[in-house]
Amino acid sequence: MRYISEFRNSNAAQAILARIARESRKPVQLMEFCGGHTVAIFKSGIRQLLPSHIKMLSGPGCPVCVTANIDIDKAIALAEQPGIIVTTFGDMLKVPGSRSSLQKARADGADVRTVYSTSDALKIAGENPAKSVVFLGIGFETTAPGIAVSVLQAEEQKLRNYFVLSQHKICPPAIKAILDSGEVRIDGLICPGHVSAVTGAKAWEFITRDYHIPCVVSGFEALDILQCVEMLVNQVESGKSELEIAYTRGVNFDGNKNAQAVMNKVFEVCPADWRGMGIVPASGLKLRSEYGRFDAERKFDIIVPPAREPKGCLCGAVLRGVKTPLDCALFRKVCTPESPVGPCMVSSEGSCAAYYLYGDTDGR
Ligand code: SF4
Taking the model in full, what pTM does it have? Predict the structure, then answer.
């Protein structure tokens, strides 16, 4: 297949669905880790099309959603310091922290600028030598290599006013934490395509080896996901737990070695605070000491009061797959994309936004 329309072909989808209906006997719960998959599943109505004994669970794979309130508070506190320009991708602007958001801070006079790439942030640093420019490093393995490159570029350009607030997260330890918690039964895992393009499918090998749960790396179109579900169902029905790649046009076993190299050159692994999961060991990335002069945490005093969670918001439980947005009393009534209470309603990859925009009221 060469064109996007071919990955959305209705006849091909019907054929896969018919095979799934024929082959699937056992009740299964499949978790899609990635928020991009959650949105694609909702947008194409896959939940409604699958047999009712195949249940899809949404996982914690939305980097905006899993950013802990304390980390959002730190970004806001930085933005409120005089002489600092905070640059960020647009999806972080409306995310509520404990007491404010970057958008509100900007309305109150803070210099917060939306950028489309780190190149924009470097340009702003070059044009504002008297100010400090902080880039919010939020994202998974997909985003971290590009931000690592920006640090190397800042070094090359001798920019002394460019800093990164690294709140990056790496995904396999989060999945391990969910599996170790035993809170949800997972019979098969739809592994994230974009993350795997960098890490390689090998990042998920431990799940089949240690937890005996089938894993398939999926792309983001309707047929990608249906093919992935069929592969998982086939494994479940035949009692296998193997690692497979359905997204071969984007992912191989070893991943992108150049991206891994640049990420590992600039960052090192550290514990990270995940919304809903707390501190997960070895699940974050911080700047190595060699690049410490670009580290916003080292450069600036960032003092924030203890974080508060929005009252009644179930984002933490939603991100762990133990609740759905429909379990939240605020969903649709108080919390909407126009007036979001928690990050899962703000982010374009958030479960609550997907349920709100594309879901049926019965939650399928
Ligand atoms: Fe939080 Fe809103 Fe989702 Fe409820 S509906 S869990 S308040 S984001």
Answer: 0.93
